[in-house]
Amino acid sequence: GAVEGFVYSEALAKANENGLIWTDENLSKFLTDPQAYLPEHKMAFGAVTDPQERADLIAYLKTLSQ
Fold first, then answer.
1. Three-state SS across the chain?
2. Nearest to 16 by CA among 46, 38, 35
3. Which of 27, 24, 28, 20 is nearest to 1 (CA)?
4. 34 contact partners, CB below 8 Å, separation of at least 6
5. CB-CB neighbours of 40 under 10 Å
6. Cβ distance 48 to 57 under 8 Å?
7. More confident: 55 or 9
8. Fewer CB within 10 Å, N or C, the chain?
9. Per-residue model confidence as pLDDT tens digits over 34-51
10. Taking the complete model, does pTM exceed 0.85, yes or no?
């Protein structure tokens, strides 16, 4: 996604330009290991290593876009 006026890292901006869609699968991969999935992003975020916690987080995020 992209929000006008927000300064994204170059890595996230490029991913957006290249058509990255935050599907459940892509989001799960990112949450599992953010640096491996999207090297050089600048978000201060570790990881969500527990599969159930990841699934719960993704389900919660989906409720925000409805």
1. CCCCCCCCCHHHHHHHHCCCCCCHHHHHHHHHCHHHHCCCCCCCCCCCCCHHHHHHHHHHHHHHCC
2. 38
3. 20
4. 41, 43, 45, 46, 47
5. 10
6. yes
7. 55
8. C
9. 999 999 888 888 899 999
10. no
